[in-house]
């Protein structure tokens, strides 16, 4: 079938729907639209048999939905209506929630139901939940709805049999934090607001601030609302019965100005940061502790696990260095396998465009950040005394995708989407992609991937050699599955031979062309881009992090969305 996707942003769910429907044999076009005339124009140009809206913030015009079946993906159960459905589910501490695929009509979220499914509400941030359980449920329901439509015999059911619950926008007055209250309630408010809109708060120094993300702390204490410590650029704020870690802050937007940039909390606070201790996290901090650590090291059954998780998957210079330090620690341990990642959300999206944008000299910060990413990838590529596995529980893009394919094995959770390219940000690329990508998919396909700048689903990625194993697991179960698979790999008698072969191949490749040559060639092009004030990269970066419209580097390309 010819299917047209209409979306307000080319976000994670829209990308997943595109790649999975194509993998099912459909011809899929995607258009980012913001106004009625753009919807009409897209439908007129593509003449679809079916219209699907994975994430559309505006209503479909009547003259479109009366002539075409338009399926809307709503992140709520049948009968639920409103733009803050998922926020309310977390705010109200629901155990289960749902996704409904309904037909567009004259009232938002009120159309006939084509399919619906439920999912468990994991104790994670809204954006993580959206990219995980919501995305899985949405894809299951949408696949069923498309099959039903294609059959030509199915008739959707009216919502009259369901209890209708119209939910208003969850505004800041309902999200407001009372720091003297309990930690669990505060964390729930923070989870319901991440990554947008954040929780507006005026208690932190230099406020007001939007708070993004939250993690519990089981030992530190202080007066409610008091900043008591820092760690890895996050701040620890005392509550009525404990404390929480806030990893990111953002200034409220001033009238007439573009959106402000989310930044690591201590970076955002700057001189407003009080004189509090830096509580360095031991990489081997027990996973059983309720505390914040964006990088951890664990060891089980001859396997070392370097686990890391950063908001939005972006890795600043400092964050790259923390991962590299943990990785070097892992390589000093007597293990046969090292696993990178293994968490449930983003693996990595490469350099941190927000930190770069806010830097006093974005060109120099870009250069420092790309060097730090290259140092990490180089450490993975030059590890020849054990096997390295990249375990992707969530999406990866740009330098993060190249970090993954630098490993010996790439294991991806089903539903993961890869964007192994840089072009949409106006960059030629780095992180040894000119070595690693052709090594996996061949030189012609490597060039095609970089040129096309399209998302790749895991099934297609496995067929072309980007991915070695697809792990069918829920987001919450992915880590356990990876742990068991890695133990099996470490115990496999063939692993010793694989390590021997790996060392030989690395020596052969180094003799043919040293890794430093790939790095120097790539970074020479990157440096010219970074330090050229007129390079498109600077405008594209600013538009991306400040959520402004931008002109893509090629007319056919859609810029990825910084939203969930």
Automatic annotation (TrEMBL):
It comes from the Bacteria. Signal peptide: none annotated. This is Hydrogenase maturation protein. Gene3D superfamilies: 2-enoyl-CoA Hydratase, Chain A, domain 1, 3.40.50.12230. InterPro entries: ClpP/crotonase-like_dom_sf, Enoyl-CoA_hydra/iso, Formyl_trans_C, Formyl_transf_N_sf, Formyl_transferase-like_C_sf, HoxX-like, NiFe-hyd_mat_HypX/HoxX. Residues 171-254 form the Formyl transferase C-terminal domain. It comes from Yinghuangia aomiensis.
């Amino acid at each position: 079938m010819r299917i047209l996707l209409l979306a307000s942003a080319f976000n994670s769910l829209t990308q997943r729907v595109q790649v999975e429907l194509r993998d099912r044999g459909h011809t899929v076009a995607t258009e980012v639209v913001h106004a009625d005339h753009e919807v009409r124009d897209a439908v007129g140009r593509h003449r679809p048999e079916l219209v699907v809206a994975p994430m559309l913030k505006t209503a479909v015009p009547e003259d479109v939905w009366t002539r075409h079946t338009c399926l809307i993906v709503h992140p709520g159960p049948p009968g639920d209506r409103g733009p803050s459905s998922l926020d309310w589910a977390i705010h109200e501490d629901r155990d289960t929630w749902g996704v409904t695929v309904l037909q567009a009509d004259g009232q938002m979220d009120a159309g006939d139901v084509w399919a619906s499914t439920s999912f468990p509400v994991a104790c994670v941030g809204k954006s993580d939940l959206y990219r995980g359980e919501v995305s899985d449920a949405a894809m299951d329901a949408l696949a069923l709805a498309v099959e039903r439509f294609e059959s030509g015999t199915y008739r959707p059911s009216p919502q009259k049999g369901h209890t209708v619950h119209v939910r208003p926008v969850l505004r800041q007055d309902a999200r407001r934090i009372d720091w003297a209250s309990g930690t669990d309630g505060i964390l729930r408010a923070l989870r319901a607001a991440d990554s947008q809109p954040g929780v507006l708060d005026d208690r932190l120094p230099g406020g007001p601030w939007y708070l993004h993300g939250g993690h519990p702390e089981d030992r530190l204490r202080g007066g409610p609302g008091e900043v008591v410590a820092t760690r890895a650029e996050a701040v620890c704020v005392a509550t009525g019965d404990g404390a929480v870690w806030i990893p990111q802050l953002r200034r409220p937007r001033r009238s007439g100005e573009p959106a402000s940039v989310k930044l690591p909390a201590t970076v955002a606070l700057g001189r407003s940061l009080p004189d509090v201790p830096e509580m360095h996290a031991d990489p081997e901090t027990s996973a059983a502790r309720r505390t914040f650590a964006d990088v951890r090291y664990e060891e089980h059954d001859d396997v070392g696990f370097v686990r890391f998780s950063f908001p939005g998957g972006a890795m600043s210079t400092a964050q790259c260095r923390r991962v590299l330090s943990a990785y070097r620690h892992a390589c000093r341990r007597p293990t046969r396998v090292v696993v990178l990642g293994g968490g449930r959300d983003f693996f990595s999206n490469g350099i941190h465009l927000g930190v770069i944008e806010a830097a006093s000299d974005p060109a120099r910060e870009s250069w420092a950040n790309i060097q730090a990413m290259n140092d990490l990838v180089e450490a993975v590529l030059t590890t020849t005394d054990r096997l390295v596995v990249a375990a992707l529980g969530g999406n990866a893009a740009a330098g993060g995708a190249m970090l993954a394919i630098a490993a010996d094995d790439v294991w991806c959770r089903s539903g993961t989407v890869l964007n192994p390219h840089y072009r949409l940000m106006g960059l030629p690329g780095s992180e040894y992609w000119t070595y690693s990508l052709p090594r996996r998919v061949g030189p012609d396909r490597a060039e095609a991937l970089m040129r096309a700048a399209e998302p790749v689903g895991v099934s297609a990625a496995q067929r072309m050699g980007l991915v070695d194993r697809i792990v069918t697991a829920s987001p919450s179960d992915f880590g356990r599955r990876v742990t068991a698979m890695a133990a099996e790999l470490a115990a496999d008698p063939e692993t010793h031979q694989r390590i021997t072969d790996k060392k030989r191949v690395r020596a052969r490749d180094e003799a043919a062309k040293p890794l430093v040559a790939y790095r120097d060639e790539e970074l020479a092009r990157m440096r010219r881009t970074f330090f050229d004030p007129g390079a498109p990269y600077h405008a594209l970066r600013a538009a991306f992090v400040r959520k402004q419209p931008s002109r893509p580097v090629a007319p056919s390309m859609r810029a990825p969305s910084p939203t969930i």
